Queue: 3 jobs
Job 1
Amino acid sequence: MHNQTSEQKYKSGFVSIIGRPNVGKSTYINQVIGQKIAIMSDKPQTTRNKVQGVLTTNEAQIILIDTPGIHKPKHKLGDFMMRVATNTLREVDLILFMINAVEGYGRGDEFIIEKLKGVQTPVFLVINKIDQIHPDQLLSIIEQYKGLYNFAEIVPISALEGQNTDRLLQQIKEYLPEGPQYYPADQVTDHPERFIVSELIREKVLHLTREEVPHSIAVVIEKMQKREDSEKIHVMAAIIVERSSQKGIIIGKQGSMLKEIGKRARLDIENLLGSKVYLELWVKVQKDWRNKVTQLRDFGFREDEY
Ligand SMILES: Nc1nc2c(ncn2[C@@H]2O[C@H](COP(=O)(O)OP(=O)(O)OP(=O)(O)O)[C@@H](O)[C@H]2O)c(=O)[nH]1
């Protein structure tokens, strides 16, 4: 076939976002996609799974993968997350290594850069939260990081305020290979709704209980279906904790905390599903689940599912 058209070919690809906890990865994905997909919290390491956001335009489709924070594993769950993250880096078309402009270079960054040296994929250095620093500081950050790794591009942004995020998108497109539209244009994530629903509930628990409940909690959706007798979707979810003291905190005085968690989560879930929701929550104690890989699988942290 002699198809001598001057039209640009469609581009598409997978872009992995890595960085220390709390640098703003979820905020960036939400900023790009414009919907609350990745959950956000002030506490580090709220992202456990890869949450994909899909951005489709007339010229390209960018599939963003929020990779769980790469860090030195302390227990089985950390080890498992690290493996998932490292595998991801080899498979994607582009890696965004995000740093927080306000925090100095640390051992966490050093660890990530060591990991990056083992992959062929091009890497952008994305300096986030530039709304919080003086431009002069930016120059010295750029100088410092330039010497550490051969970054394909260095892009300063503010994910929160949207500064320079358009330019970053443009540069991402330039690095993507020609490819098909993997997802329909109106699809913003390929995660099952159940997963997003469980993350919305987990987010409320973490926000409302502040430092009192650790990140090791999990939320398992046991049932999610439309009730025959009403328009509502019935969601049943268990919040899994490691100690009964944590159970007490989550339930609160006369159930007040659990009630508040449920109320806030329900509103978000209704928004997500576009339907009224009947949400039933309970708290379950399961000791030391983080170290039990078999239980991780039960809770849905399955490598082959990503
Ligand atoms: N000032 C400012 N704050 C930001 C910016 N981007 C993110 N934040 C804040 O930084 C905090 C952490 O953001 P997240 O998006 O949850 O960070 P994350 O990298 O996904 O965190 P993990 O899930 O722990 O890996 C939140 O309080 C955000 O509001 C930014 O550009 N400027």
Note: Confidence is low (pLDDT under 50) at residues 1-6, 43-49, 293-306.
Job 2
Amino acid sequence: MSEYSVELKGLNKVYSNILKEDTIALKDINLQIRPGEFISIIGPSGCGKSTLLRIIGNLDKPTSGTIEYRDGADQQMGFVFQDSVLLPWKNVRQNAEFPLVIQKKQTKENEEKLDELLELAGLSEFKTALPRELSGGMKQRVSIVRALSYDAPLLLMDEPFGALDALTRDHLNEELLKIWQKTKKTVIFVTHSIEEATFLSDRVLVMSARPGRVKEMVEIDLPRPRGEATRNDPKFTEYNKYLRGIIG
Ligand SMILES: Nc1ncnc2c1ncn2[C@@H]1O[C@H](COP(=O)(O)OP(=O)(O)OP(=O)(O)O)[C@@H](O)[C@H]1O
């Protein structure tokens, strides 16, 4: 068992296509993510961020290289994508509860925890609302609660707030950190926003343009809990400038 939540060694991914040249999406990725860490992945469009996340999430296979997980984390992962796919005929609570139903894990303890998460995500008053009655931000909150409902140690998020306006996004970033601090999950978060990566993360992985490699891993030494004061901290601006410079 790896001491890391996730450990990638020499990971490569090539997409083959008989009609055109192969696409080398990932090249020699080595990465160690500690339990409970919040890591963001940034880099130019097409550099392989989503491919890397999908491979970590067992949704795709690497061409070569290995991945090790801690405590069977590969069996239990939570996913949040840009478009929250909620079942339109089920209400907020039923949508959030869905993984528990599928996995037959509707224990009293899990149900209570689900209600706590809904409360933490500010959804308590909307438990009986249907998805069509919710704003985009609320739908994303439901999908975060759903991803956390079955207590997977690893949460994978691919541009979860990409489609939201800047204010809602800032607000949800703060909510996500609150939930993260309470649940102590390992989070791997793909984003196009440098500011979002800085605000959220313990470390930011900067990838190079295709073929995607690890260009630099940047430790974000900003105090927690983070909030509005973080965004006004001159160090926050410095980190953003530095990251922008690396991406080029
Ligand atoms: N299923 C696939 N088949 C063939 N090529 C693919 C496939 N998925 C991704 N690619 C290619 O692999 C490269 C990396 O794609 P990926 O979506 O991982 O990048 P990304 O960094 O997440 O991009 P973006 O920032 O634009 O969302 C791209 O050149 C893409 O065209």
Note: The first strand starts at residue 6 and ends at 15.
Job 3
Amino acid sequence: MDAIDINGVTKRYGSETALDGLDLTVERGEIYGFLGPNGAGKSTTINLILDFIRPTDGEVRVFDLDAQSESLEIRERTGILPEGAELYDRLTGRQHVEFAIESKAADDDPDALLERVGIADAAEKKAGGYSKGMSQRLMLATALVGDPDLLILDEPSTGLDPNGAREMREIIREEKSRGATVFFSSHVLGQVEAVCDRVGILRDGDLIAEDTVEGLRDSMPTQTQLRVTLDQSPDASSAVIDAVEALDGVSSVTPDGRTLVVACESDAKTRVLQTIEDHDVTVEDFETGESSLEELFVAYTSDAKDEMGVVQ
Ligand SMILES: Nc1ncnc2c1ncn2[C@@H]1O[C@H](COP(=O)(O)OP(=O)(O)OP(=O)(O)O)[C@@H](O)[C@H]1O
């Protein structure tokens, strides 16, 4: 049985199509990263899973329960960290967690949960005085109440410093080890790359790619990053940069001291090096690297993708 099964779901707001026949499956026990640029339809998808909104067409099932007629059962088994904290300014951190425990008829220890998310010291403080990061941690504590089978985290690292983001990743991994399924949307690609079993990339309401991070990389074997060290620092406006940028198969050129960072197709590498030498600049060294998930994300979601023939 899958954790989330979205079947041919279309959602229109008036003439605006937010989702267009979306098919998406999240397996039980996996950490699924849901990526997409602003307006791609991520929040719409999450709202449909939780029955906060209804699809124009298609069906959503969670643990084989119908998202519409069995939404109460689904919510009992789900922990939600919504985008943007919705806290009660006059309640303390502990009161928030106690409230979540009561609502779910769970028996968690509120202090243990606050300790787990790193804000035990602020348990007695009113949430109105919490920083963004503390609010996010508190919301995570309430999401963890009752050991939910499914955790839905919408942009979980919002407002967190690097330490907070690392702790968030640790908690996500612990939840998976416990057997929970984690579905999270993010723009912070490093988070997704570090923690997800699979990644789905949404663009304009369509899932345009879905695979492991390695699988996404393999589907774009031609895209590499070439770092070329020169014998001199190229001026940002120098002719050599313009010439390399103009080459077929080169998508970007970024100077970094004496290094030129060139995103290009593999077969453009020789042309890049030749063009630099043609401009009387000596190549002292060069190395090629794998595309980071960030570069893949840009490649998949920018218009260049259509020209690059990325697998749909
Ligand atoms: N209540 C609404 N009424 C009209 N249009 C809406 C509504 N909610 C979302 N949309 C539109 O649906 C599309 C998808 O929006 P959605 O909020 O799901 O995207 P998102 O991927 O979550 O974006 P973001 O990363 O910016 O939060 C957008 O074009 C948005 O303008």
Note: The CA atoms of residues 130 and 297 lie 33 Å apart.
